[in-house]
Amino acid sequence: MTDATFDWLYPERIQQLSKRHWTPVRVAKKAASFLAAENGKSILDIGSGVGKFSLIGAHYFPEATFFGIEQRSELHHYALAAKEFTRIENAEFMHGNFTQIDFAQFDHFYFYNAFFENIDSKDRIDHLIEYSTSLYHYYSRYLYKELNDRPRGTRLVTYHSLEDEVPPSYQIVEASRDFLLKMWVKK
Ligand SMILES: C[S@@+](CC[C@H](N)C(=O)[O-])C[C@H]1O[C@@H](n2cnc3c(N)ncnc32)[C@H](O)[C@@H]1O
């Protein structure tokens, strides 16, 4: 599966955002293999966009269930449409802010720098929501606390993260050669 073939699931505007905003197929496979190492786990993508990470993970790792939470209703809608088209059953998509969900429902987490849009004015997905530095700090602190409250053995994968949301209780166990993709385990 290439990025071009996967992105074909979406309208052209969404395809054009892919390189900058959606996880590449090879990264999604590597991240998902770490998070779904044990069967039967529930994995949450925090800021799931059009569902690319979750759908690829769910396709390659059918014994795990992939969940996504996305604040933009348009992107959530495209995630549901892609799930229906691909008939993938072990992926679920929720619409809302990640601060509204109960982290205790999930075993492991994926995070592709969802809050960075608040501090980077280039290449934004849209101009329909408010962005601010204080929102970046609020979300990062909120996620830090939620991750810190998870039990030992919780796995986290970050991609392009500034690591403001990663508590020191998480240790890196593997990383890509360019250090953009990092696998962490809570000790
Ligand atoms: C870089 S994209 C990654 C999308 C997806 N995880 C992937 O890898 O293909 C980050 C997404 O996080 C979403 N997001 C940002 N802040 C959020 C929040 N507070 N709650 C829910 N979603 C959020 C954005 O709308 C965007 O779709």
UniProtKB/TrEMBL annotation:
KW Chaperone (keyword) present: no
SUPFAM superfamilies assigned to the protein according to its UniProt record, in alphabetical order: S-adenosyl-L-methionine-dependent methyltransferases
Protein name: Methyltransferase domain-containing protein
Keywords, ordered alphabetically: Methyltransferase, Transferase
Transmembrane portions of the chain: none
GO terms classed as biological process: methylation
GO molecular function, one term: methyltransferase activity
Domain Methyltransferase span(s) in chain numbering: 43-128
